[in-house]
Amino acid sequence: MGQGFFIAGTDTGVGKTMVAAAVAAWLRAAGYDVGVMKPIHTGCRHPGTRQPPPDTALLMRAAGVRDPLELVTPYRLRQPLSPLAAARAEGGRIDPRRLRAAYRALADRHEIVLVEGSGGLLVPVTATATMADLIRAWGLIVILVARAGLGTLNHTLLSIEAARRRRLTVGGILLNHTRPPSGSRDPSATGNAALLRELTGLPVIGPLPYVAGLQRRDARAWRRWLTATRGGRARPAGRDSVRRLLDRCGLAPPARR
Predict the structure, then answer these.
(1) For 25, left (φ over 0), alpha (ψ -120 to 50), or beta?
(2) pTM of the predicted model, to two decimals?
(3) pLDDT tens-digit series, residues 197-220
(4) Which domains does the chain have, with CATH numbers?
(5) Buried-most residue among 91, 151, 161, 239 (CB within 10 A)?
């Protein structure tokens, strides 16, 4: 059974999908058989169709997989709410056993499985289970995605504290720019990575650059961002890059030659 990693966020909208897709693309380029999973996708416009939702489609393209949609995203819900609230709005509920069965099926198919969560670690999946409970039950290693700028210290440290209290393994933190540079420079963005390394003792990657068009899933923007996160010439991603994320976090063996 393959090793599983959970891409968690300190909040919604921090760029989890883009980071998960970039890591999947790098693993694929390095020769690994990587599977992807977004167990619960809320805010789906057409949840009843056989077409994967946009985030799921991006993850699958990045990994180059054609796994059944029922394994990659078992729950596709219309309302842009937490999984618990979105399921209740449709008169249903999330069954963790169904989610785990889908994950195990993917782990049997692939060397590595990247699982993208919904929001933060304590987002409720059911009335009695959170995303953190899924991580622990499935034995996954957490990669925490956080905003690069002001406010990220509190959000990130709270998430790390919540993870450690639940005895989750956190492999590292990835800081991501989610907004274009503004006229007023945020001085915290240059020092947050060093502070988080000092305060958590964890590897901290980034910050990764902002690239216009990513939220619209523009193909050219995606290629520019992927080049940047690989540490390519087009645009450096700082001292660290997603290309070295798994090595720095001790999550995977070196790339195959």
Answers:
(1) alpha
(2) 0.86
(3) 999 999 888 787 776 555 555 556
(4) 3-249 (3.40.50.300)
(5) 151
